[in-house]
Structures are given as structure tokens and as C-alpha cells.
Amino acid sequence: MPEAVTSPATGQRDQGRPSGTYTWGSSPAEQHRLKRQLAVLRAHSATLLDRVGVRPGWSTIDLGCGPAGILDLLSDRVGPGGHVIGADADPGYAALARAFVRERALANVQVLDADARRTGLPGAAFDLVHSRMVLVSISRPAEVVTEMARLAKPGGWVAALEADATAICYPPHPALDRLTELLVAAARSDGADPELGRRLPRLFRDAGLADIGVEARADVYPADHPQRTVVPDLLRAIRPKIITRGLAAEAELDALDAAVRGHLADPETTIVPVTYFLAWARKPS
């Protein structure tokens, strides 16, 4: 039986299967990974904004922005005449995002504590509603996409960048296969879908969006790249959850972590940890 968890949106203890929580949590290890991810995904996010055609003066929102999201990219694109809102249900992540905004002196950015499913913000208010690596990490992602469509102005855009757990490794290694299996099992026990990336166009269609575009990108990381170890890093972030739920014992996790990191340290190992899907769509006028 899954352990009780604290909902970042309500602060209440939920018994049994979590409903709506961010599956990777907010441990220091996960906060560090998300900050490192900023540079890793920056080019992909810039491409997504290019596909949408973000212009100066736009009103935009980054749902589930975490410690930074794409707040700086949006700030630069919309300029002084535009406005950016970052929203996160976890007060800790929202506080980190506010610190990020202050450090970067992003005068046109505001950060709110808000649930991506029910922001409480007025509908039809934004030229662009964006999320990144949020839908793949929560249960009931369609509810978030519905809220994204509600927030967009008629003729405005909804855009998302999400991962799909389609790891490719050569030579293959049984320890990496087992770690991936544990990650998928932990995510699914939270109600999340590790293969959500490929479903983005369908989610957009079901929310009534139109003019849907999609791209898939698979990055091959060299031996010295920090994203090369994203699978064992994610396992470390949710290690207590894996043990408590009886998915694996501590000794097995120690052995798997050492074996995988050793394999990935070999420069002759080719690794594509995930496939990233970029999707964008317009709200009908």
C-alpha cells in the first residue's frame, strides 16, 4: 500500500494512492536536478516558443513552473510591455521561483501559489499557456490540459514539452533496465504516465484545441554530460518512496545505482534517457 503523502496544493495528508502530487517530490536532490534541467531543456523550450511565435506584449503563464521553469525565456520574449505568470502548487517551489525572478531582475514576471488544475485565474486571459515536464509527472493530466485551454484567449496558444520514457542504451545493461522498470512502477503507482509525451496531441484534441503541431527530440549525451545519469538521479530523488512501497530493497538500489553509474561512465556507452515531445495548439476563436 502506498504511503500517506502530503499534497503540495492543500498541505493535507492523503492516505493510499496519491492524487495529483508531483511524483518526483521536492527533495533537495530533486530541486538540484530541476535546476540542472534548465540548461538541458533550454534549446528545446526556445524552439517550442518559436513554433508558437511568442511576441512582445503577450500575456503568458507557465503552469507548474517549479524552481524556474521557462520564466526567463518568456520574460525576454514578451518584453517590458508583456506579462509572465509562474504558477506552482508546491509552496517551496514557488518560493524558489520567486527567488529566481529576483536574482534575474525579471520585472515583468509574477509567481503565484496555484494548482495547475484549478488556478482560480480568469479564463481566456493569456496569449500563451505553457507547461514543461508537468503532465508526465502527475495523475489526471487531462484536467491540467483542460485548465490550460480555459486560460487561453480565443485564438491563443497552449504549448507543452513533456518526456516519454523510451530509454535507449547501447550496450544494454540489466541494471539500467531494472532502474527504468522501478521508475515506471513508482510513477504509475502515483497515477502518472511515464509515456505521456506521445499522447500530447490526443490530450490537446480532447480539450478542444486545434491547429496541433508536434515534434519529437532524442538527445544523445556524452560521457561528461550531467543529463546522462538522469535515470539513476530520479531514482535517488524517490528512493524512500520505492523502499516504502516495497518495490525494491535498499541493498538492491545501492547495487543498481553503482552498476548503472559505472556503465554510463564508460564513454563508449550510448545513452538516450528519454524522448522529448514538443506540442502546441491553438484555442479556436
Structure report:
The chain has 285 residues and is of the alpha/beta class. It has a single domain (5-282), classed as Vaccinia Virus protein VP39 (Rossmann fold, 3-Layer(aba) Sandwich), CATH 3.40.50. Helix content is 39%, strand content 22%. The strands form three sheets. Strands 5-4-3-6-7-11-9 form a seven-stranded mixed β-sheet, with helices on both faces. β4 (83-88), α3 and β5 form a beta-alpha-beta unit. α1 crosses α7, α5 crosses α7 (230-237) and α5 (174-189) packs across α9 (250-265). The protein is globular. Mean pLDDT is 90; it is low at 1-19.
In short:
The chain has 285 residues and is an alpha/beta fold.
Largest sheet: number of strands, sense, barrel closure = 7 strands, mixed
Number of helices: 9
Please state roughly what percent of the residues sit in beta strands, choosing from under 5%, 5-15%, 15-25%, 25-35%, 35-45% or over 45%: 15-25%
How does CATH name the architecture?
3-Layer(aba) Sandwich
Overall strand count: 11
- Helical percentage: 25-40%
Strand order of the largest sheet: 5-4-3-6-7-11-9
What CATH first level would be assigned?
A: Alpha Beta
